[in-house]
Amino acid sequence: MDFNDTSEEAAFRAEARAFLEAHVAPLEPGQRASFETEDPQTVEAAQHWQALKKDNGWACLTWPVEYGGRGARPIESVIWNQEEARFRVPPNIFGIGIGMLGPTLMAHGTPEQRERYLQKMARGDEIWCQLFSEPGAGSDLAGLQTSAVRDGGDWRINGQKIWTSGAHFCRWGMIVTRTDPTAEKHDGLTYFIVDMKAPGVEIRPIRQINGGANFNQVFFSDVRVPDANRVDAVGNGWRVSMTTLLNERASVGGAGGGGLGVRDLIRLAGQLEIDGRPALEDSHVRQRIADFYVRLRGVQHTGNRTLTALSRGQTPGPEASISKLVTAPLAQQLASFAIELQSLAGGEMAASGFQDGYLGSPGMRIAAGTDEILRNILAERVLGLPREPRMDKGIPFKDIPTGTA
Amino acid sequence: MNFDFSDEQKLLQKTARDFLQEHSPLAVCRRVLESDDELYAEDLWSGAAEMGWQGAAIPEEFGGAGFGYLELVLIAEEMGRALAPIPFGSSVYLATEAILAAGGDEQKKRCLPELASGRWIGALALAERPGRPDPARIETRLEGGRLTGTKRAVPDAAAANRAVVLAAAPEGPALALVDLDGEGVSREVLASLDPSRPGATLRFDAAPAEPLGPAGGGWEILERVLRRAAVLQAFEQLGGAARALEITRDFTLGRYAFGRPIASFQALKHRLADVYVAVELARSNCFYGAWALEQEAPELGEAACSARVSATDAFELATTEMIQMHGGVGYTWEYDCHLFYRRAKWLAASLGGAADWRDRLVGELTAGGGA
């Protein structure tokens, strides 16, 4: 048991660090490379950095070399991310394409599609978004209603997608549509590549409770898509979507909590007073801090177990999937407690960073699998418990109640 | 990154699991729990000693097996899974650790082989009243090699024949080693929350006692021993929690209501997922504790507290949910749920509750002003 790199990993880390030191400035201790907005300048800077990485062999590390990757092992990708996080680099706005959609094209796309799209995706020349969720299809993705209808050699798409990150600066999207409403729910779906600049595509930002607008609604009105942009067979869209989502879990799983952490809470409690004594000496405060700390450390060490599996070339076990289920609610609880400690001043947005955290954290509990869906996954895939009986099997999709028009 | 046990260590764990499955099925725990005069499973105790487990972390020069702590924690995990009704924790994690930490060379040569062989069963006598022990309020006196005073609720003291006792010496807090079968010692076996691990009140009336470590330094040694024991016991708690989850899962799969297994209701699935998460967080914190223990790392204080807190929480959650999800039968004497429920809370109490360890953790995190 030790926390050291193997000699091969250490050599890779040194090489990665040398490249980073040659091209970008390191972060000062405690400094975050935060970019508040995804404005055109930020997008341009991100594309520039991605191209530099690609041209030097540091982009899409785990992709095969023929598609523009490095053919690296998953542990090397983790090491790169650890090193890159220590430098002041633009935000990674390519994760959905490179992490999820690229691997989907590799598995289900035609040779022409792979040839046309993957290299440009890898270099960041073209940015991609994912068009899955709809107002009537969230956790139950297969309930989607956006239609694609044949029109000569093309398809015509009509409907509405939602929660699309980065739609306004993306060149291409991957969309799953319903092509046969008379088939069973999971059988009538087909997957396409859609041009986000095509006539009939309308993008409207969604304002979140924290005032930010990281997501969009995307409306499709008679948007024409050539059949050459269909991914895999008609009616096979569910299977293709599963490939995408599997890769989503693989790329989201390692993400940390982000935002303000328990060390910030300790610092805050050291500055505040309760009954004339430091809040940090208050028994109740100490109990809560310890509770947060122990759970966060548990997640962190669970991450080390995952890295161990990757380092050995194994597939990580189910423990890898608990991270977000623990950290997202904990971020909310931690922010809530910190605001409570500030008492009357807690209502002021500028009192600390925790106010922002309180407004941002509910989104983490919903994005990329709600707490409830994650519990179902653990219960069903890890503990082997049966699924709930369903009302939407064995009947045509058009006969299933939807609650939306 | 190698945050896992080696293949050899896992093999040793498998051996321990197989041995305990054969020699310590839950019926053995129940037998001791229901008996008035069987204070621990003597055959299991001597079997464990033959496997070298009591001496797992004792160097070979002192009669131990010299395995190491990464091996001992895995044995502890299996002890926890089996709810082994033997005073393993008190003798191995506490008494043996105290002698390893504070004993002189002569004491180690004399005492450790006895503990390794299982001839000595040790206990740690700490508390004198309910509430967290306080070095300024120790009433038991150690003077001129004699011990006088009363220790309450001493874990495993019904079975033990030696005790490491916290006492006040003229120089300050001190630890002393006492022969519980010797003169001046009387004990009263207590009804224990977990009768498979009966404790006792120990009364010392000028009992002969040999000092362990420097007089006045007893509290520091005790703190060191408790930190180490916290990691070891956390593995026991982890093992118990994981087994409780498995049993509960199997029960909910086989129990039908409203025409389907109750394991198919999200009301139960989500809670079982939460138990699973608690167990895995505890496992990860325990791994880190094991690393810090084995390395004698400066992080041991923080690591021990984290392992202790998360394993205590996981075992309690797993066993309260175990009874609840079993429904009415879970509340019967006949079903085994209460064996787990009792053991979970008894282990939580026996080194001081999770609240104590949470408080201690914040102390570790803020020591030296380095928040």
Keywords:
heterodimer, A: 405 residues, alpha+beta, Butyryl-Coa Dehydrogenase, subunit A, domain 1, Butyryl-CoA Dehydrogenase, subunit A, domain 2, Butyryl-CoA Dehydrogenase, subunit A, domain 3, 3 domains, four-stranded mixed beta sheet, four-stranded antiparallel beta sheet, globular, B: 371 residues, seven-stranded mixed beta sheet, two-stranded antiparallel sheet, 11 helices, 15% strand
Secondary structure blueprint with pairings:
The complex is a heterodimer of chains A (405) and B (371).
Chain A: H1 7-23, H2 40-55, H3 74-84, H4 95-108, H5 111-123, E1 128-131, E2 147-151, E3 154-165, E4 172-178, E5 189-195, E6 201-206, E7 215-226, E8 230-231, H6 237-252, H7 262-271, E9 273-274, E10 277-278, H8 283-311, H9 323-341, H10 354-364, H11 371-382
Parallel strand pairs in A: 1-4
Antiparallel strand pairs in A: 2-3, 3-7, 4-5, 5-8, 6-7, 9-10
Helix pairs in contact in A: 1-3, 4-5, 4-6, 7-8, 8-9, 9-10
Chain B: H1 7-23, H2 26-34, H3 42-50, H4 69-82, H5 88-102, H6 105-117, E1 122-125, E2 141-143, E3 146-154, E4 162-169, E5 172-179, E6 185-189, E7 200-212, H7 218-254, E8 256-257, E9 260-261, H8 266-295, H9 300-326, H10 337-350, H11 354-366
Parallel strand pairs in B: 1-4
Antiparallel strand pairs in B: 2-3, 3-7, 4-5, 5-7, 6-7, 8-9
Description of the molecule:
The complex is a heterodimer of chains A (about 400) and B (about 375). In chain A, strand 2 and strand 3 form a beta hairpin. Chain A has about 400 residues and is an alpha+beta fold. Chain A has a four-stranded mixed beta sheet with strand order 1-4-5-8. A four-stranded antiparallel beta sheet of chain A has the order 2-3-7-6, with no helix packed on it. In chain A, about 40% of the residues are buried. Chain A has three domains: about 5-95, Butyryl-Coa Dehydrogenase, subunit A, domain 1 (Orthogonal Bundle), CATH 1.10.540; about 130-235, Butyryl-CoA Dehydrogenase, subunit A, domain 2 (Beta Barrel), CATH 2.40.110; about 255-370, Butyryl-CoA Dehydrogenase, subunit A, domain 3 (Up-down Bundle), CATH 1.20.140. Chain A is built from eleven helices and ten strands. In chain A, about 40% of the residues lie in helices and about 15% in strands. With about 375 residues, chain B is of the alpha+beta class. In chain B, helix 5 packs antiparallel against helix 7, helix 8 (about 265-295) runs antiparallel to helix 9 (about 300-325) and helix 9 (about 300-325) packs antiparallel against helix 11 (about 355-365). The longest helix of chain B has about 35 residues, at about 220-255. Chain B has three domains: about 5-115, Acyl-CoA dehydrogenase/oxidase, N-terminal domain (Butyryl-Coa Dehydrogenase, subunit A, domain 1), CATH 1.10.540; about 120-215, Butyryl-CoA Dehydrogenase, subunit A, domain 2 (Beta Barrel), CATH 2.40.110.10; about 220-370, Butyryl-CoA Dehydrogenase, subunit A, domain 3, CATH 1.20.140.10. In chain B, about 55% of the residues lie in helices and about 15% in strands. In chain B, strands 1, 2, 3, 4, 5, 6 and 7 form a seven-stranded mixed beta sheet that branches. In chain B, strands 8-9 form a two-stranded antiparallel ribbon.
